[in-house]
Write a sequence for this structure.
């Protein structure tokens, strides 16, 4: 789980960051599932925020038992608070043509890891090569922080889930999707949400989720919340009344919580099971698949059309849609055939995508009338 930097409500970020209470040892409170310590007290708002580092990391807000307003307001507070904790959060310097010298790229890990920058390193090298600008990576732990970061003009490029992109776009954030990662050149972009239960559980379908403690991922997660709620509703189950929802914070955490018994059942995207098994976190048979969604549009990389000048936007679009794939990266000497890491651990890379690909997500929002669909 991510670490948290905490300051009490009513205390300025600058003052708290200078106090002994903001020491690294105090920042590393933990929250969540799978045997971790309880959530932070209600008088605290949590962020991943380092005052001593050259870059402040975007962070998560506490979503359990919080109102929508606090959820998003806290995320925006993070964006503003980082400016109080060092030069790294200041506006990037402008170049001689008035454009920014630094492009800020942010993404949210699907696993409860501290950083996913290694997955983006080759994309960062490509973008720096193609644009002539430095690319600064920010590892976020919450989609709301990314949405509000782009709204506030602090994030230029962001890796979204389909649902969080829809929330941002339809909420007035000036974002435009440019590409989505695929496993192979000929694989249609997209993936699935899956419902899971313990391997020895009598649960065999979503019909059996009624009355259960159900692990979701994040209220802005497509495969970890939106499509699962649509599936539950189709099974005649009210996600607000007929189950006890738990926000695990990550797709891996959801599966591990099912195994540990902290959740009776839960949801995660389709290939996460392979990742936790390969790491030895689960064994084959520990959990079983009991539901599969319709195909979901691929997760987009979206650029902020207000913080990037037209020339930089064009260079980024060309780089992502034509060169952000393993064969091209290898040819450019950015990575090798033996090791060419890419986001979402895909083997090929990015293909072009546009806003029309996310109409399916909008239709699911219409069907579910989920409050999360209007959180932007």
């Amino acid at each position: 789980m991510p670490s948290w930097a905490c300051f009490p409500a009513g205390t300025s970020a600058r003052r708290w960051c200078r106090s002994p209470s903001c020491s690294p040892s105090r920042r590393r409170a933990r929250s969540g599932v799978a045997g971790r310590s309880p959530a932070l007290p209600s008088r605290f708002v949590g962020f991943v925020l380092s005052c001593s580092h050259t870059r402040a990391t975007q962070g998560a807000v506490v979503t359990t038992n919080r109102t929508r307003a606090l959820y998003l307001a806290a995320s925006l507070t993070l964006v503003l608070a980082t400016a109080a904790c060092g030069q790294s959060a200041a506006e990037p310097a402008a170049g001689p043509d008035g454009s920014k010298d630094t492009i800020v790229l942010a993404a949210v890990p699907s696993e409860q890891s501290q950083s996913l920058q290694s997955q983006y390193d080759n994309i960062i090298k490509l973008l720096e090569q193609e644009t002539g600008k430095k690319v600064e990576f920010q590892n976020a732990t919450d989609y709301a922080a990314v949405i509000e970061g782009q709204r506030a003009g602090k994030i230029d490029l962001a890796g979204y889930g389909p649902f969080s992109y829809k929330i941002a776009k339809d909420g007035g954030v000036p974002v435009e999707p440019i590409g989505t990662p695929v496993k192979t050149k000929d694989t249609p972009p997209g993936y699935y949400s899956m419902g899971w239960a313990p391997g020895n559980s009598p649960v065999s379908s979503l019909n059996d989720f009624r009355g259960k403690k159900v692990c979701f991922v994040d209220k802005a997660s497509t495969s970890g919340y939106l499509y699962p709620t649509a599936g539950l509703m189709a099974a005649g189950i009210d996600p607000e009344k007929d189950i006890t929802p738990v926000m695990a914070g990550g797709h891996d955490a959801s599966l591990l919580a099912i195994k540990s018994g902290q959740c009776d059942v839960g949801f995660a995207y389709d290939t996460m099971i392979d990742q936790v098994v390969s790491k030895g976190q689960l064994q084959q048979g520990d959990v079983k698949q009991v539901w599969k969604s319709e195909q979901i549009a691929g997760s987009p990389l979206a650029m902020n059309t207000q913080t990037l000048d037209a020339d930089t936007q064009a260079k980024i679009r060309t780089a992502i849609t034509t060169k952000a794939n393993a064969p091209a990266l290898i040819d450019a000497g950015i990575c090798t055939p033996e090791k060419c890491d890419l986001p979402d651990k895909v083997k090929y890379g990015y293909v072009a995508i546009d806003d029309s690909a996310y109409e399916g997500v909008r239709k699911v929002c219409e069907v579910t009338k989920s409050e999360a669909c209007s959180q932007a």
